[in-house]
Amino acid sequence: MPYLEELSVYDLVQYLNQQDLKPQLAVAGAVNQISQAIEAMVPRMEQGGKVRVAGAGTSGRLAQLDASELPPTFGIDQDQWKTLMAGGRDAFWNAVERAEDNVEEGFKDMASETLGMNDIVIGVAASGRTPYVQGALQAAERAGCLRIGIFCVSTPPLQPLTHITIAIPVGPEPLSGSTRMLAGTAQKMVLNIISTGVMVRLGHTLHNLMIDMKPSNHKLKLRAEAIVQELLDCDDNTARNLLQQHQYQIRPALIQALTGSRDWQSFKGSLGPLWQLKHLDGIDIPAE
Questions:
Q1: Tell me, what CATH number does 258's domain have?
Q2: Residue 89 belongs to some domain of the structure
Q3: Does residue 104 surpass a pLDDT of 80?
Q4: The SIS domain covers which part of the protein (predicted)?
């Protein structure tokens, strides 16, 4: 590896950019395990299962970054997918380095979530041996949860505590030991893939569109109108009028257009089959 301070700024940027190819290759090598994780999670969540992700430092912050986006993107409750962070909530913003060494704290934090057999615990640890994550996985084991590990080494010591191990060995960091770089990038990729894959399989999307997003500002209301226009092949006024009847919730608006019914709660899960059937027959959008 080069001595970083001896590189020109251009060469340093080029070197770091080239290093960022490693996480992509590592994640590509774990596609089977990531797929297994999604397939195991979906039926449990269909039965009301919750997801808890345990991490420390960069791993925990990346897990929270992913989890915090799921309620507005897919319309789920915040309690359905949460992050437990070594050092507590303050550690999301300020480093509490010693907290990751506490097995008991990880066990206590996870045990306090009162989880059961339908719930899922994901442990994220670049080293594959973080004590806080170990404690969280041990509590999950006692509760009978599905346990998934995301680790950035080939043979993680915590593997025996998991049902599914996603190993994404990225190799040495360009800045030795700084796992916020390659390991963090790989972890972020896997977390995004898992959460998006689960939400797709639970029916929170139609095609590649977010039909359960929460349109909480003007930009998102415009996006909701664009989604309805695309799916129903209608003009913007029709889309806007339909959405206004449902407080800009996309799913109820689509169901009314596709079925003529306002009882949208009867149509749970994927709208794909319903859309395909109605799209072939032609969609008659009811007037207000």
A1: 1.10.8.1080
A2: yes
A3: yes
A4: 41-204
